[in-house]
Structures are given as C-alpha cells and as structure tokens.
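Good morning,

Attaching, inline, the backbone tokens for the sequence recovery test we're adding to the shared suite. The designed sequence is right after.
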C-alpha cells in the first residue's frame, strides 16, 4: 500500500500574492473605464452650463459658416439679444423655481398682468409712471407670494398650483384691462418711463437696448447669488432633498416662499421690459412666455427634478433658440424647422440630465 500524504496543503505565500495581484489588476482595469465615465458625469454635474454653451457655440459657428459675415455682423448678433430679452428674464425666474424641484406655469400671466397694472395705474388713475411701475413690481411679487404659500404651506404640487393661478391671473388681467390696449404713441407722450427698456444705444456697429443689458445683469447677479451665498445653497438643497435640508436647519417653507416671490418680482420686471419691447401695454401679449421659459431652462441643462443647474445655462438655452430662429430665417427655410430642432434639443437635454443623474446617484 503506497504512502499517500493526506495532510491538506497550505498555499504558499507566493500563491496568495499572485492571486491578489491578478484580482487587483482585474479590478483596476474595470475601475479605470468606470472612473472615466464617472469623471465625465461628475464634471457635467458640477458644470451644468457646459453642454448648452457648447451647443450655442457650435450653432453660431455653423450658421456663421453658412451665412458668412452677414450672420456675424454686430447688428445680427445684438438682434438675437433683443429677441431673447423677455425669454431670458422669465427663464431666470423659472430657473429659480425649477431648482427647488417645482415649476411655474404662471410666469407669463404674472408678466402681462404686471405690465397691465403699470399701464392702468398710469393712465386710468393718473399716477406718475415711476409710482405705477413700483406698484406693478409689488403686484408681481405678491402673485409669486401666493404661489409660494400654496406650495409651501398647503403642500400642493407646484404644477397644479401654478396651472390654476395662471388661469386666475390671466382672467384677472383681461377683466381689469377690459381687453384694452394702451397705444405706443400715448405712452411715448405721457409716460416714457414705461418704455425705458426699449430704448436703444449704439456701441460701434452694435445696437443694444437697455432691456437686453438688464437681462444680462439679472442673470449674472442671480448666478452670483446662487453660487456664492448661503441662500443660494439653500435653494439647491431644497430642490435636491427637502427633508435632508430641513434636518440640516434649512427653513424649507421660507425658502420656497422667497423663491416664488422673487420669481414673481422678476416676471413683473419682465412685464416692464415687455412694454419697452413692443411699445404698448397689451393684455394679450406674451402669452407663450411660460412655455418659452421652460424651453430655455430645459435646453439650458437645468434639471427638471431640481437641485442641479446653472442660470447661465438658462441664458444659453434662450440664446440657442434665438440663434436658430434668426439663422434659419436668414437662410430662408420654413420656420417650422425651428420648432423641430428646438423639440429635438429639449429631448436631448433631458436625456443628458437623466444620464448625469444615474451616474452621480
């Protein structure tokens, strides 16, 4: 009978090292690919304006190549700013609300009703235009305050709240104004302050309006506030996780009311700019502002789920729409192509947002 050593053999230390080395190599190779993808997602998460700014630059380059110097003329480029002036201001208000995981369908109604209040208090009640403007701005903030209270304290869905107040404010606008338009000539003669943001000035060959300058100032001011102040961080925290924000000491209800109130004030400011843009006070103007503002925000890379995005992205989104609109019109194509491209961009932007959220979850 042969001698068989039945004692179990213990692997040598060298064999353990080999196994561990192979395992580490395999994990490292796997993690390398995953890390590269995660780095892109993390960078886009921390720089949400990157994609819309890239799309904007590419759109300008493409139309510049097709149209040449005609598109790159100072007049054409500043015309884009004038065209997106109202959208840019209302998109700023919409951005604040969407960052808190809400949505405001009443931005257009607040804007128009505020402009009507400014006009009516000037021409119906004989108040100085400056006083009427202040009352209109206060009215816009008040309408935003109503939205904020309903969302924060009654815990109603923002979509339903603002859908309802959109109809209420719009109806009040028509009833109060009696569907009457205050003509441009009357405003120019008796209350030129109402048309201030429509006044133009030249810088070289470029023509700017004070409204376009005001839009840029609002955007950059809000960008600073959201990025560099405690209140701005609270806005992002409420949109990201309101329960965690509450546990961290953030007064969620107060922040929500402040956001909706500020959004209403900005919309009222847009109403003042609207008078300058069209020259008159019309209760039927700006009816698509709510959809246009949401479009700019979506294309601008602001997450519709809240807690992520840059207001500079919303400005870029509005400018993208302006570039496509002007570029396609200068080429002579059917205007419907603009809607087709904008629709595709919205779907693309939301898809990118979903991809980023999955990677950073």
């Amino acid at each position: 009978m042969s001698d068989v050593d039945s004692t179990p053999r213990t692997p040598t230390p060298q064999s353990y090292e080999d196994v561990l080395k192979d395992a580490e190599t395999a994990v490292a190779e796997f993690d390398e690919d995953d890390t590269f993808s995660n780095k892109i997602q993390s960078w886009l998460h921390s720089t949400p304006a990157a994609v819309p700014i890239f799309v904007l630059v590419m759109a300008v380059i493409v139309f510049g190549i097709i149209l040449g110097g005609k598109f790159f003329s100072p007049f054409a480029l500043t015309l884009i700013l004038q065209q997106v002036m109202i959208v840019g201001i209302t998109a700023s208000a919409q951005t604040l609300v969407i960052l808190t995981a809400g949505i405001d369908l009443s931005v257009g109604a607040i804007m128009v009703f505020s402009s009507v209040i400014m006009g009516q208090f000037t021409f119906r009640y004989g108040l100085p235009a400056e006083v009427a403007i202040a009352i209109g701005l206060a009215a816009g903030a008040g309408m935003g305050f109503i939205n904020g209270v309903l969302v924060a304290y009654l815990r109603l869905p923002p979509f339903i709240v603002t859908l309802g107040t959109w109809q209420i404010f719009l109806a009040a606008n028509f009833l109060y104004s009696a569907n009457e338009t205050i003509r441009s000539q009357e405003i120019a003669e008796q209350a030129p302050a109402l048309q201030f943001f429509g006044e133009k000035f030249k810088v070289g060959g470029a023509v700017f309006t004070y409204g376009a300058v005001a839009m840029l100032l609002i955007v950059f001011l809000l960008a600073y506030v959201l990025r560099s102040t405690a209140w701005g961080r609270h806005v992002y925290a409420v949109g990201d996780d309101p329960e965690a924000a509450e546990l961290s000491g953030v007064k969620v209800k107060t922040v929500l009311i402040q956001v909706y109130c500020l959004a209403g004030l900005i919309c009222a400011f847009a109403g003042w700019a609207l008078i300058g843009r069209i020259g008159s006070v019309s209760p039927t103007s700006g009816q698509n502002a709510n959809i246009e503002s949401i479009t700019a925000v979506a294309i601008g890379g602001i997450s519709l789920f809240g807690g992520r995005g840059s207001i500079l992205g919303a400005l870029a989104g509005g400018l993208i729409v302006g570039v496509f609109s002007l570029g396609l019109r200068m080429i002579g194509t059917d205007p419907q192509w603009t809607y087709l491209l904008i629709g595709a961009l919205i779907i693309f932007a939301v898809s990118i947002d979903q991809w980023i959220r999955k990677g950073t979850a």
